[in-house]
Each structure stands twice: as C-alpha cells, then as structure tokens.
Amino acid sequence: MWDDVTRAPRQEDVDAVVLRALGAQPRCGEVVVIAIDGRSGAGKTTLAQGVAHALAAAGTVTLLHLDHLYPGWDGLAATPGLLTRQVLEPLSRGEPAAYREWSWVLGRWAGTRDVPSCRFLVVDGCGASVDPARAYAAVTVFVDADLALRQRRGIARDGETYRPHWQRWADQEDALFDADRTRRRADLVIDTSSL
To answer: Residue 36's closest CA among 180, 140, 154, 174?
Structure first.
C-alpha cells in the first residue's frame, strides 16, 4: 500500500529501465542483471518491484533484495563482493546460486537462500552496481532523491529503530559511492524527489 511518503513508481521510470533491459545483452551467463542502486530511502525497492512486475511478461524474473545480504549496519562495503561471489559468479557459469542471509534480529548470518533460475535478475539495494558486481550488470540504475525526503521514507519504512543508524549508513553510502563513482557510471539516473 502506498502512503504520503512512499508512492508507486512512475510508469515512465519503469518503462525506461524495462526498455534497456529488453535490449541488453546478458553479462552474467544467460541472465540479464538489472542493478537498481542508490541511497537509502530513494525508492529503489519501489522501482525494482515495478520493473520486476513489468519484465515478467518477457520471461522469468527473480528479485533479489540486498537487505538480505548486508552483514549488519557496518557491512555495506562488503556487500558488492558478497553479491558477486555468492550469486553473480555462479550464475555467470550457469551454476545454481545461493547466498547467506543476514538476520537483523539476531545480528548474524542465519541460513541460506537459493536464487531461482531466471532470465532477468533484478538486484535492489545500495551497492547493487558497485564494483565488482557492476561487471555482471547489463543495466545499472542509480535512484536518488532529496535528503529530507529520503530520511522520512526510510524511517516510515523501517520504523524508529532505523533512526539511530541513519547517519551511520549514510556515511558508508558516501564512502562507497564516492570511491566507485556509482552515480556517474550508471546507465540511468532516476530522481524520485517529485513523487
């Protein structure tokens, strides 16, 4: 359900990503990877869900949320490597892929999740298109929005328990995205401030 902070994705944004995905050559074996990256609260998950839904008409789609891979509040920098080793490299070889799943409640790894075989893999989360994962992405998208709006969205989505971690996570985003030049290297940049 959409509220005054979180809205449905703009159809034109979904269409722009889907058009690129349908015309893209796979860079991960036979799988077309669409990496939807950007800052917390920008609307990555909303866009990723819209893109996954739209792509389902063209083939099988798996939506992977990096929230399941982040190794805790200080683990953002490690995530592109984890994504690459556990998911993208096996898929590129035509092998089954699975990743260790982080439990935010327990504060540790808690199980493994299989990645279903698919034609399209939509990866949603901060770090989705950061090296070394970028090499496997056929389409890279960077989603951004006004800082105050992003913070309102993040707190509305995750509750007050997220507030003490907001700046801690934002500092990691700054370091990761600045070093990688993620926004500048994206195929598409989508600003959701007006949603």
So the answer is: 140
Match domain 11-191 to its CATH number in 2.40.240.10, 3.40.50.970, 3.40.50.300, 3.40.30.10.
3.40.50.300
Of 114, 117, 129, nearest to 34 by C-alpha is 129
For the question of whether the overall pTM of this predicted structure is more than 0.90, the answer is: yes
Which range has the worst mean pLDDT, 53-57, 133-137, 166-170, 173-177?
166-170
Burial class of 114 by CB neighbour count within 10 A (0 to 12, 13 to 18, 19+): exposed
Q: Which two tokens stand for residue 125?
A: 């989360």
Q: What is the pLDDT of residues 112-126, one digit of tens each?
A: 999 999 999 999 999
Domain ranges of the chain: 11-191
Question: Coil, strand or helix: which one is 131?
Answer: coil
Query: Contact 14/74 with Cβ under 8 angstroms?
Result: no
Residue 172 has pLDDT above 90, yes or no: yes
Residue type, 193: S
Q: State residue 165's pLDDT score.
A: 83
Query: Taking the chain, what is the end-to-end CA distance rounded to the nearest angstrom?
Result: 15
59 exposure class (CB count in 10 Å sphere: 0-12, 13-18, 19+): exposed
